[in-house]
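Exercise: predict the structure of this protein bound to 6-O-phosphoryl inosine monophosphate.
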Amino acid sequence: MPGTCVIGLQWGDEAKGKLVDLLTSQFDVVVRYQGGANAGHTVVIGENVYKLHHIPSGILNPNVRNLVTPGVVLNPPTILGEIDSLQQRGVEVGDNLMISDRVHVVFPWHLAEDRAMNAERVSGESIGTTLRGIGPCYRDKVGRNFAIRLGDMYRDDFRERIHEIVAAKKRILSNLNGEVESLDPEVIFAEFAAYAERLRPHVADTTAFLLDAVEANQKVLYEGAQGALLDIDHGTFPFVTSSNSSGVGVSAGSGIPPRWINRVIGVVKAYSTRVGGGPFPTELDDDMGQRIRDLGNEYGTTTGRPRRCGWFDAVAVRYTARLSGVDALSVMMLDVLSQLPEVRICVAYDLDGERIDHFPSHADDLRRAKPIYETIPGWEVDVTGVRELADLPAGARRYLDRVSELVGRPVEIVSVGPDRAQTMFATPD
Ligand code: GDP
Ligand code: IMO
Ligand code: MG
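Solution:
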């Protein structure tokens, strides 16, 4: 299996980190190829909980190379803090972490712009970003004039570039009522030059490395960040992130032609969550929503915000599974649903009195879409100790079969708790 991708099919936090960590032992290379410090991927190994924002979730396996490739936007203090904290906990981070010199760097002006823009409303609602400067950094990448890539930080004109950009950003930010006082080019230069020195041993041409790896038949695992419904082109625009977080982004972000990618695992929660603004048809704004939040401990890994919770939306996931070229589903957090008296699946929407089973492209239409549910009796059995799919309660198996049928993909992996051991794999017939 030369190239396998793990892609979130909802609005992020589907437990991609757990799955990537689990699969890592079968691979030579693990790649983070889009997003940045907005991601928060949790890996639980026994008593140890690791929250990774930038570093691929393969880092906990000492035999794997971990790559951060050109499609990522890099926040130097975040990744350096992560390296320090992993090393303090005895995890090796050295040659096993390579960062592309092509990644774009998030600077303090991006954080200021994110704060200023997030105060603005779109169709009456704030996007509710993670405030990690993601949108502004990607905007500068596409705009080109004000962009600085990691490789630029080692060049003679780095200081001059910071001076030029800060002057321009102060003009832009004052028009946005943003904070400009703290943007001192000399202070920023000194700080980021020091980051560049510390990052130097990890900086590499990951594109050349990856092409050599795939041509030598090495196995590569691509770790998606966010989820397909947050994809800049295909998600619930404008309530999305600024990168291609569905399966279509893997090739562009990593620099690997699609021919080297031959398996896509779509990760879903057994229900739905969303952090930040935007339409969410199956959202439960009631006691049941709170119950799911409590049972699933649904609070953001990056920002600590309570996650909005709701039932599984098969219309949305069928759309993202097709879009992402998913071969198999990995259904996570089945233990959470296993405590409820009944569970629901959204099988279609009612849009202005008409039953539809496609995912609307406009956020306003999605906002009006009312879920049409199928109700399934709950099984109310603690499944956290179950280790074989055949040992799951009949109700839980019926639920998984129905999810698979509605989404149109087989369920091959099921998770019933955060730990590595709490995972079941379907064995081929
Ligand atoms: P990611 O961003 O997709 O990697 O997901 P997050 O790490 O942000 O959120 C997933 C959370 O669910 C983490 O706290 C995991 O430890 C936890 N988790 C993973 N799988 C399961 C599961 O099957 N059941 C429960 N209860 N928690 C899980
Ligand atoms: P992982 O990788 C959940 C959401 C934000 C906001 C929108 C835009 O852990 O699944 P941004 O800061 O990217 O400009 O915010 O996207 N968002 C996420 N939600 N999980 C994530 O990452 C997310 N990354 C961004 O809440 O709604
Ligand atoms: Mg997360």
